[in-house]
Amino acid sequence: MILTSKKISNFFTLLLLLSLFNACTPSQEKTGNRRTFSASQALQSSGTPQEKSFAFSQSAEWVLKTHNIAEADRMADQALALDPENAKAQFIKIIDTLLLKLKGSDLRIAEFLRDKPHLLKGFQIRFLEPDKNSTDPIRQLRTAPSEYAPFQSERDIQSYIDDLLTTLLDLHQFSVEHSDLELSLESNNLYISLFNLNPHHDFAQSCELRPGKNDEFEIVCPDNSLQNAIHFDIADWMQLRLFAAYHFAMLSSYNSFDLIGYFNELESIRSEEVSEMPPSAARTSIEQQLYERLYKSLIQNPQFGGRRSPELTRKIKAMGQDLVLALRWANQNQNKSCPKGFQSSVGLDLQVQRLGQAFPYGFCMGPGLGTYFDSISDIFSGKPTLRTAAQDGGYHTTQIQWMALFDNPEMSLRDIGPLEFDACGNVMKVGDPTLGGTFPLADANEHIPKESSLCRQ
Asked: Residues 237, 179: contact at Cβ < 8 Å?
C-alpha cells in the first residue's frame, strides 16, 4: 500500500489470506487438490487435545474455501473447545463471525425498504442488482438467504451495526495481542474480496464441499489453490490493526445517535424531488432546501437524535489513537512494511513488496507525513485545533474539539442542531452555540455561516 497525504484513505487496503500447514493428523488425508477430514476420527484419535484442536482448525480453513461459513465456524468452535489458546482457531472464529453477519444483509435491508419505493429503487440500482450479478463472493454473500430476520426498523439496523462493531473490536484486540505471532493460513477468495486487496482477482473458480457419512467430508479445488501458503508477521498484524481501528471509528461515529424515523422522512422528501433536477448550483440549492425540510421534520420526533450505545462510542478515541500508533509504526518501519521502497508515481500499478505475506503490497508511505499524523492524533485526543473559514471577503478563526460530540451521553441532535437556514438551505444558526462542545468558545453561530457555500439567491 502507498500512503501519501493526498491519498491517506488508501491506508486500509488489506489482505487476509489463509494458508495451509503441511502437518496432518491421522484423521486428515490430502491428495492433489482433494482434502478429506473426519470429525469422529479426529476426536477418537490418540493425539493430545492440542493436536486434535489443530486438526479441526486446519479443516476449518479448508471448508472456508468452499464458502461454507457455518460449517467452518462449527469446526473452529470444536477446535477452541479442545484448546482455547489455539490462535489459528481464534482468528478463524472472528472472521467467520464477521462473514456470517454480512450474510443476507442486502436482502434484509431491501425488505425494510419495501414500503419506501423511492429509497428501495436507489438501493436496488446501487447495491442489490450489482451484487446479485457479481462473481465476487462477498457481494454474493450479502444477497444470500439468511437465517436472520429482515430489519423492521432503524433500531434493528443500528443494532446490527453494533454487532459488526463488536466483531471489529475482537479483530483489533486479536491483532494487538498477537502482533509477534508468525502464522501461516489457508488462501481464500472470501478474504480477498472482504478486504478488496486485488480488484483484478478472478473469483470464478471456487472449491466444492462434498459431505460424506459420519462427519466426513471431501474438499475439491481447481488448479493448485490448496497449495497457497500466506504468512502473517508483525507488519501484517499492524495493517490488520489499522483496518479494524479505522472502520470501528468511522462506523461507530455514524451509529452514535438514534435514527428512528429518519428513513420515513427521507422517503417523503425523495418522493417530492423533481424527476429531472436542474444542473449545477440550482440542483444543489433544491437539494439543500429539501434536506432543510427533512431536518425540521426530524427534530419534531422525540425518538430521533438521542445518544445510543455509549459503551461503544466511548471507544472511538482509544481506537483513533491506536490507529495513529499503527500508522507511526508503519512509517518508522518501512524496511518491513515497504522493503522495495516507496513508489511515488500514483498512476502506476501497485508493486508487490512482500511476496508470500498476507499483505503482499505492503504499506508504503511518502515523506512528510509526521505532521499529518500529529493532526489525526489531536483530533482523537480531544485537543482543540484551530480552524479558519472564509466567505465573501470575511473570515473567522475558532477552536474545534472534534470528539466533543461523543463525550456527552445526555446530548441529543434535536437540542444542538440547526435552527435557521438561508434561502439555499445552508445552516445559518444552531440551537447550541457550542454545538455539543465542538466549539468550546461558543462561537458556532459566527463560524458556521462562514463554512457554508455563498447563497446568491
From this structure: yes
> What is the pLDDT confidence band of residue 174, given thresholds at 50, 70 and 90?
very high
pLDDT for 37-92, tens place per residue? 676 676 777 789 999 999 899 889 888 888 889 999 999 999 999 999 999 999 99
Q: How far apart are CA 285 and CA 304, in angstroms?
A: 25
Q: What backbone phi and psi angles, to 5 degrees, belong to 23? A: -70, 140
Are the C-beta atoms of residues 243 and 10 closer than 8 Å to each other? no
Strands, E assignment, 356-433: 364-365, 385-391, 394-400, 418-421, 427-430
The β-bridge partners of 229 are 186
Distance from C-alpha of 288 to C-alpha of 422, rounded to nearest angstrom? 10
Tell me how far apart the alpha carbons of residues 189 and 200 are, in angstroms, rounded to a whole number.
12
* Res 285: pLDDT: 61
Q: Write the CB contacts of 14 (distance below 8 Å, at least 6 apart in sequence).
A: 195, 196, 197, 239, 240, 242, 243, 359
pLDDT in tens, 117-171: 999 998 888 888 887 777 788 888 888 888 889 999 999 999 999 999 999 999 9
Those residues whose C-beta lies under 8 Å from the C-beta of residue 84, and which sit 6 or more positions away, are none
Return the C-alpha cell found at 126. Answer: 446501487
Domain ranges of the chain: 18-159+183-227, 315-376, 380-451
Mean pLDDT of the chain: 80
Q: How far is CA 297 from CA 120, 262, 267, 304, 426, in A?
A: 21, 9, 12, 10, 16
Q: Cα–Cα distance between 429 and 450 in angstroms, integer?
A: 11
List, in order, residues 6 or more apart from 19 with CB less than 8 Å away.
Answer: 184, 185, 186, 187, 228, 229, 230, 231
- Kindly report the CA angle at 102 between 191 and 219, in degrees rounded to 5? 50
pTM: 0.82
Q: What is the DSSP letter of 202?
A: -
Q: Kindly give the interhelix angle for 315-332 and 370-381, rounded to the nearest 10 degrees.
A: 170
Average pLDDT over residues 320-336: 92
Neighbours of 388 (CB within 10 A): 11
Dmax (CA) for the chain in angstroms is 83
